[in-house]
């Protein structure tokens, strides 16, 4: 399969990876033949990339960090919890979901079990969902990314659980923000921005009163918008005054937000997102944690379509954990734009290809 921007997809292409609704159910399933109507609908729903079948890349399959069943269970739990809390007054909110801590313990245990079995695999978040599902799928992606960092740091089971639950529920305070504010395309005014920023304190207040959720997990909600140099909110904390779990969640939050389409912009490529993160190390983020994070993320994920500085176009067939910016590329198109008769692969990590670089993700 190969991943393409929606603008490059045409009627007759076959879906190679399902697209999901906000609650984790399938919107467009594997094997569906795309029509112009389907393509227009995907654009309308905020899908800016899609995986399609291709005879030259049928054997190229992204290796997900967690199983589809695990992801569906996690998204479903987040969806039910978040929607159950939306638009509820404070008193009702505190009694409506008396023990969702145990639910998320079970959910994150499944996530960490999957991650533990694939610790040598660079994380590739290839799951596609509609724009309205960002809130719920984003929480699961942040938990996956945070879990990878926790494992890399050698956290014990309790530490991983506290981090994971904090990551799954870090944005729970957004359930109390009017949806039109966090989904609008226009720039926020000062009052609207202040209202959204208050979600960190609301999330902390929700979580710290919940049974089976630790205070350190609740601090992921409170501190995930704090920045290493003190420019964040709500308390302008600096460096290690920010809890380590919150520092990890902050990195995962921004990375997944960048690679996801939003109402006000298209998604960034993983390579552009990682470049942004690295440029802000030790100003926005803990540089040591950031380096650890970037060691476990695929800058050019398997199945990505890329253009090389030679003018050739190909698909990433294999990532290299020793040099994440030097994957193996299956060449499909020559510099003159002609399709190759027999696709061939070049390993950018090998000496003979060291002058070849990726210049664009397509």
From TrEMBL:
In terms of CDD domains, this protein maps to:
HDc
Q: Which residues form the HD-GYP domain?
A: 104-309
**Origin: domain of life:** Bacteria
Which Pfam families does this entry report, sorted A to Z? HD_5 (PF13487)
PANTHER family documented for this protein: CYCLIC DI-GMP PHOSPHODIESTERASE PA4108, CYCLIC DI-GMP PHOSPHODIESTERASE PA4108-RELATED
Protein known as: HD-GYP domain, c-di-GMP phosphodiesterase class II (Or its inactivated variant)
Q: Which organism is it from?
A: Brevibacillus centrosporus
